[in-house]
């Protein structure tokens, strides 16, 4: 596909969905941020490969995966980008899964072949630092991406419902994902590498319209979002076209979702303020917040109060405490897909439609 045709395609306001996985299709794993070297994690990856292949999905590990440079990266940016670009172009590879998150995926963004992605749309799935690819690809090219578990989750010995549903979704099945009962609030050390999620706290969705808490919310629109930390880094750079994405798909409505890693309440206010001043909340149907990873404050301000400080005056509808992000389990969210998100009395659901 030449550049002119791909630019015209993006202007059309259509989302492009890669082909779903069929029996015997190949999933490739790459490490665009950090890599995997600890023994329990390596064992987990090998078990994930075995379990996926038992489910009919072949798995291939890239050279970057079991590698670590000692400074937060799997290897230098050029090698990480080259492997990703090569996997996108390889027509035998139907799905690309990220090995893990990290801090330095941003270094590969200048080297990503966006025209290659448009020419051969391939599913990419990951979360956390992988927002750098997911958000960038979907807002710039209108090719759908998946904000969901990194590859390690496939390696738990007994798959959690969230993992089972993820596999059904990437095989093309329509799944109404219901909120979970418990989530993992604390970090737990891996002993065998095959552990599942630990249920430390009850899941509790909360809904708001401006300042006011409401017991029920129903949102519809196209999903776009990811890790709040990374999105703030990307905002205003050439590696996102969020406002263009919103404009192209305004007839469908937009649901923005955000889940934070390092942000305390004070940082949350500043980040939301920045996006508000950039016009990111204009013309959207609502916002969904995942559970914040490190909830803390230096000014006696709760996370909920921090969000209200910025969104309250705007009268925006938003949900807090959703099953998205670092505090597992989490939903499989497709950037670009239409979604119906419902919340009632502390529970929620999401139904994705790829049309």
Report what the structure shows.
The protein has 355 residues and is of the alpha/beta class. It is built from ten helices and 17 strands. Helix content is 28%, strand content 23%. Helix 5 (131-141) crosses helix 8 (242-248) and helix 9 runs parallel beside helix 10 (303-311). Strands 6-17-16-11-12-13-14-9-10 form a nine-stranded mixed sheet. A six-stranded mixed sheet has the order 2-1-3-4-5-15, with helices on both faces. The protein has helices at residues 3-11, 39-54, 77-89, 114-119, 131-141, 161-170, 228-234, 242-248, 265-277, 303-311; strands spanning 26-30, 58-61, 93-98, 123-126, 145-147, 176-178, 182-183, 201-202, 206-209, 212-214, 216-227, 254-259, 286-290, 317-322, 333-335, 338-344, 347-353. The relative contact order is 0.15. The chain has two domains: 3-175, Rossmann fold; 177-353, Glucose Oxidase, domain 1.
What is the element layout, followed by pairings?
Layout: H1 3-11, E1 26-30, H2 39-54, E2 58-61, H3 77-89, E3 93-98, H4 114-119, E4 123-126, H5 131-141, E5 145-147, H6 161-170, E6 176-178, E7 182-183, E8 201-202, E9 206-209, E10 212-214, E11 216-227, H7 228-234, H8 242-248, E12 254-259, H9 265-277, E13 286-290, H10 303-311, E14 317-322, E15 333-335, E16 338-344, E17 347-353
């Amino acid at each position: 596909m030449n550049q002119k045709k791909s630019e015209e395609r993006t202007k059309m306001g259509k989302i492009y969905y890669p082909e779903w996985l069929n029996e015997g299709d190949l999933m490739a794993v790459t490490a665009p941020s950090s890599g995997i070297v600890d023994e329990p994690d390596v064992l987990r990856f090998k078990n994930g490969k075995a379990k996926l292949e038992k489910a009919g999905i072949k798995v291939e590990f890239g050279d970057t995966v079991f590698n670590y440079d000692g400074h937060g990266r799997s290897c230098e940016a050029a090698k990480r980008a080259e492997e990703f670009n090569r996997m996108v172009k390889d027509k035998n590879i139907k799905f690309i899964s990220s090995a893990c998150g990290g801090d330095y995926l941003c270094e590969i963004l200048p080297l990503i072949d966006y025209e290659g992605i448009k020419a051969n749309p391939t599913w990419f799935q990951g979360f956390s630092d992988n927002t750098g690819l997911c958000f960038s690809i979907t807002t710039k090219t209108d090719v759908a991406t998946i904000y969901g578990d990194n590859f390690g989750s496939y390696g738990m010995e007994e798959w959690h419902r969230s993992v089972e549903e993820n596999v059904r979704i990437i095989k093309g099945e329509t799944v109404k994902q219901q909120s979970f009962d418990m989530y993992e609030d604390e970090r737990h050390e891996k002993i065998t590498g095959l552990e599942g999620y630990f249920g430390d706290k009850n899941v509790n969705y909360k809904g708001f319209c401006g300042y006011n808490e409401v017991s029920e919310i129903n949102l519809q629109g196209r999903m776009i979002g990811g890790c709040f930390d990374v999105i703030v880094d990307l905002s205003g750079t050439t590696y996102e076209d969020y406002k263009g994405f919103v404009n192209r798909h305004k007839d469908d409505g937009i649901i923005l979702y955000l889940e934070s890693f390092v942000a305390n309440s004070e940082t949350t206010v500043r980040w939301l303020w920045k996006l508000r001043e950039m016009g990111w909340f204009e013309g959207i149907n609502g916002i969904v917040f995942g559970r914040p990873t490190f909830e803390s404050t230096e000014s006696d301000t709760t996370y909920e109060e921090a969000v209200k400080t910025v969104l309250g005056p705007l009268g925006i509808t938003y949900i807090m405490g959703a099953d998205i992000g670092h505090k597992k389990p989490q939903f499989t969210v497709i950037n670009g897909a239409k979604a119906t998100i419902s919340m009632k009395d502390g529970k929620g659901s999401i139904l994705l439609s790829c049309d």
